[in-house]
Design brief:
Helix content is about 45%, strand content about 15%. By secondary structure, it is of the alpha/beta class. It has 2 domains: about 5-135 and about 240-355, 3-Layer(aba) Sandwich (D-Maltodextrin-Binding Protein, domain 2); about 135-240, Periplasmic binding protein-like II (D-Maltodextrin-Binding Protein, domain 2, 3-Layer(aba) Sandwich). Its main location: membrane. It is found in: Cell inner membrane; Periplasm. Keywords: Cell inner membrane, Cell membrane, Membrane, Signal, Transport.
Length: about 375
């Protein structure tokens, strides 16, 4: 068996492990029915639906969903249809929930969206909008690492084998001319796959020299004495790259386009409100995080994390295509056919109604 084939089969098996574990726990945490926004008495149901099930991560890079829920944007647009929620800790579990029908629409990172789409032969999901750009940093121990060249020989964490930040770091390492085996993480740099929840403690103990991680983990590391060596935004044109997309089940999109449009309208409205009310929006996101995770972020972590995120309706499709190419180069993905992964029809309809220009699918749309 060729080495590359064996590697990919091993990676596929590894990728399935967290999926199976989380699936056994019911995919995601079902939200308590304690939202401020309740269905208005006598309100008309959208597409005749009793509910629309929305998934997202309890993470500041999912600020649109956090604020949209906390401030009632989703419920307002869905009218007599109840917005229900599930929170997730990992992309594979959210994709499985979408596939099983446990959720209808979700906020998710680019790598899980790519993997979910390609593994189903392009039959399970569509990306229907963008949500956030940026919010990923390389934070290091300043006593051990003072410049990029000092990364060689060090132990650097990423959140998960093959996840969005793991792919980005492996690509950056390759661009430095260093070699790392993607599967084991061994080479000129040691890549340690570490859950974002434990990475700050691992850094504090000295077992890690740094981490390539999203917010708010990056700001947690800075609070522990770390220093930002690199903001990933600086590696991208116009400092923009997708960190969070909105996906939907193709079946749900076909059968309930009015409900999908309502959620997209709420998302666009939420992003607009966040831009116009940054301090109030930050507080709302943190309040929802506290409800979802049991703990609000302290100001010293929340403030810098919030500043590094750029909310956007644009899915920044060209950067998703580039991220897929990076995964192929790292040996984590066979060259994918991403044609049809986007359907921005409803998003552009919503934007047109607001007098906003259409966003582009980089040639990866339907039809």
């Amino acid at each position: 068996m060729p080495a590359t084939t064996a590697l990919r089969r091993t990676l596929a098996a590894l990728a399935a492990l967290p999926l199976l574990t989380l699936a056994a726990c019911g995919y995601g945490s079902q939200a308590k029915d304690d939202d401020t926004a309740q269905v208005a008495a006598g309100a008309e149901k959208t597409d005749g639906l009793d509910s629309v099930r929305i998934g997202y991560f309890g993470n500041i890079t999912h600020a649109t969903a956090l604020v949209g829920r906390q401030k009632g944007f989703f419920q307002k647009e869905l009218g007599g249809t109840k917005a229900t929620y599930a929170t997730f800790n990992a992309g594979p579990s959210e994709i499985e929930a979408l596939n099983s029908g446990s959720i209808d629409i979700g906020w998710i990172g680019p790598s899980p969206a790519i993997n979910g789409y390609t593994k189903s032969g392009g039959k399970n999901l569509r990306i229907i909008g963008g949500s956030a750009s940026g919010g990923v940093k390389l934070v290091v121990n300043p006593e051990k690492i003072r410049s990029a060249k000092d990364i060689k020989g060090k132990r650097i964490a990423t959140p998960q084998l093959g996840n969005t930040q793991d792919v980005a770091f492996l690509n950056w390492v390759a661009e430095q001319g260093w070699k790392v085996d993607a599967q084991s993480g061994r080479g000129d740099v040691t890549v340690v796959r570490s859950d974002n929840k434990v990475t700050p403690d691992a850094y504090k103990s000295g077992s890690l020299d740094g981490a390539w991680v999203p917010e708010p983990t990056a700001s947690r590391l800075v609070a522990e004495g770390g220093k930002v060596l690199l903001d990933e935004a600086d590696l991208w044109p116009d400092k923009k790259f997708v960190i969070t997309n909105i996906i939907v089940s193709q079946k749900f999109l076909k059968e309930h386009p009015k409900a999908v449009e309502a959620v997209l309208r709420a998302s666009v409205d939420a992003n607009e409100w966040i831009t116009d009310h940054p301090d109030e929006a930050k507080a709302a996101a943190n309040k929802q995080l506290a409800a979802d995770t049991g703990k609000a972020l302290p100001a010293g972590v929340l403030d810098p994390a919030w500043e590094s995120i750029r909310l956007t309706d644009d899915p920044l499709a060209a950067t998703l295509d580039a991220q897929a190419a990076h995964a192929v180069k790292a040996g984590l993905l066979d060259k994918p056919d991403l044609r049809g992964i986007y359907d921005l029809t409803l998003l552009n309809k919503v934007r047109k109604a607001k007098g906003e220009p259409a966003v582009d699918d980089a040639g990866l749309g339907i039809g």
